[in-house]
Amino acid sequence: MAVLLSGAPAYSIPVTVGQAPETSLALSLSAIRSARESLLVNIYEFSNPEIADAVQAKILEGVHVEILQEGQPVGGVSAAARGIQTQLLSAMQRMRNNDRYVEMSAAKRALRRFRYDHAKYLVVDGKSLLISSENYSPNGHPVAGSSGNRGWETFIHDSALAAKFTRMFRSDSDPAQPDIQPLAQAETAALCDRASLFCLSPRFVSGLGFAATGAIPLPASSTGEEPELPVLDARRADPISSPETSLTGLVRLLDSAQRRIDVQQLTFSTDWKKADSTSPLLEALFRAAERGVTVRILVNDDSAFLPPGYSRFTKVHQMIASLNKLARERKLPLSGRVANLEVMGVTIIHNKGVLVDDDKTLISSINWNENSVMNNREAAVVLTSRDINAHYSFLFEKDWDNSRKPSWKKDSRPAQDARQQAVSTLEAPLEEDGFCPATLGVTAEVGELDLTTSDRSFQTLANSVIQGTFVRSKHSEKECLLIERKFSEALNNRPEERSFMQIRKTAKGSLSLELAGYTVRHKLFSIRSTQRPSVAEGLRGQFNASVYDNSGQSPKRIGRAKFILQEP
Q1: Are residues 393 and 451 in the same domain?
Q2: Which of 125, 194, 379, 546 is the 20 to 30 Å CA partner of 242?
Q3: Does 460 have pLDDT greater than 90?
């Protein structure tokens, strides 16, 4: 029931709170498995196998599922993400429940309504909203006890808020829009009949480890217990979205501060092209400091995005040093720190959160740069609650304290050739059927790996041999994706048993190869060809390749490998 306070309705809104890397996966799985009627998913990146399995379970139960995904992310849609799409599309096709899976993309940028669909939210049964700073990736939602991003995530049980996000989802995924591309479900069904991949027979469903009407259990913590998911009350839950209200909403939030502002961000661009060369968000922070508000800014160390051999003094360090110097000169209570990721125990800060005074918390996908605020589709919620603010304040204080001394590690290895660092998914996809084989025998021989800065689970890849017979999985007219046959034959559906091969045609007419898979801790890796066969040669022979750790914000080369291909 609404209670009038100062003329405005205030509600007691139950909010389940979580954070990456500790409980984000448990919270997302809990939200998904609570669905009884419908799931609406809007996500930038979807490569997390546990979340994919939870969504698939709901499809099998007959829950109506619709997914809107960014189809042109930076670096392209990965092979692993394409494999998950194939899995979910096959389930949708077999259940015939009017489910939908669409991408936001357009051949001409002018046809796109948003630069990127960067939002990360899920509406359950039209009544509750799961909203996060994190993508559905192994790093944004890591298995319990594994390394991952720092991010914030909440499950808000408020039908009025859910209705607002449902309307935004309907508008954004409208099939009449030129930037909405439905994924071809009929192709997936034909594949299922041919190769028995992802076929939803009783034998297949039982092999997944749950019944068609069952629930997927939450991941256990490192102690074997389920992670704690506190449920706290909020008085208000106010939505913010880019590009419509994010600038005014964020500035209004900062201008409302009376005592403190704590900002934790992946990126913070202080210069904007359309705002007199200064970010309006930075201006709002300085206005707050000038009226006596204590302002703290904790930003990610941008060396996490750079290849080996990065400069000791990065752009972010320079920016924070300049802000601190300006604050000292003006005698303002404003200070900034660069995250010490090693001491914090996280891969990167992927958060986009803000704490204001002792009762306002921003859960957001909005990076603090001009593009995210003005051009992207982004989603955020401002929660008014002392308890929720206290929960995330505890986390911020810990991260702030752990970053008293920035990490000044400099990689002694020489920077890799830019061509080796290039992400193969940037290349044009294949459009002709003839380039994509029906089956392909693949052997990847992995050599020594440099794992000084990688998750320990990558150790199992070193000096290993990966073998499989891959079969075509074509859910789109513009992709060539091959899925390992043993995945369907083993019927165990363990993420580390999944692997995918993506083949693309380069501008010069050669073929690039990318093998993607998961480690035993469900971290993504990829093996990408550096020596590429020509179209005329076909997919046979030996080709040099590089091994990448894909668990961070950017792929990181960690060693060499060799592809041995046999086209039947």
Answers
A1: no
A2: 125
A3: no
% of the chain surpassing 90 pLDDT: 59
Q: Identify whether residues 429 and 336 lie together within a single domain.
A: no
Residue 188 belongs to what H/E stretch? helix 185-195
Rounded CA separation 429/423 (Å): 13
pLDDT value at position 225? 56
Tokens describing residue 277: 């060369």
Q: With the C-alpha atoms ordered 439, 440, 441, 443, is the resulting torsion angle positive or negative?
A: negative
The answer to whether residues 15 and 385 touch, using CB atoms and an 8 Å cutoff, is yes
Would the pLDDT of 188 be above 50? no
**Sequence-ordered strand ranges (E) for 357-498:** 360-364, 378-384, 439-449, 465-472, 481-484
Q: List pLDDT tens digits, range 309-360.
A: 555 557 888 899 999 999 999 999 999 999 999 899 999 999 999 999 999 9
Quote the Cα angle for 358-397-219, to 5°.
Answer: 100
Structural domain total, the chain:
3
Structural domain range at position 266: 235-402
CB 289 within 8 A of CB 328: no
In the DSSP assignment, the letter for residue 364 is E
* Residue 27 covered by a domain: yes
CB 150 within 8 A of CB 344: yes
| Domain end point (choices 155, 189, 207) | 207
Instruction: Determine which helix (DSSP H) or strand (DSSP E) holds 60, and give its type and residue range.
Output: helix 49-61
In a domain, 109, yes or no: yes
ω before 217 within 30° of 0 (cis)?
no
Compute the distance between CA of residue 49 and CA of residue 119 in angstroms, rounded to an integer: 20
Q: What pLDDT, in 10s, does the model give residues 253-304? A: 999 999 999 999 998 999 888 656 799 999 999 999 999 999 999 999 876 6
Calpha distance 46→71 (Å, rounded): 11
**What's the pLDDT tens digit per position in 85-94?**
988 998 999 8
Tokens 């971290």 correspond to 523
- The 3 state secondary structure assigned to 365-381 is CCCECHHHHHCCEEEEE
d(CA 300, CA 316): 8
Same domain, 298 and 394: yes
pLDDT of the residue at 380: 98
Dist CA 340 CA 347 (whole Å) = 10
List the beta strands (DSSP E) in 391-505.
439-449, 465-472, 481-484, 499-505
C-alpha span between 14 and 188 (Å, rounded): 40
Task: Evaluate the omega torsion of the peptide bond into residue 495 and state whether it is cis, within 30 degrees of 0.
Answer: no
- Judge contact between 100 and 182, C-beta under 8 A: yes
- Domain assignment present for residue 228? The answer is no
Residue from 531, 499, 484 nearest 512 by CA: 531
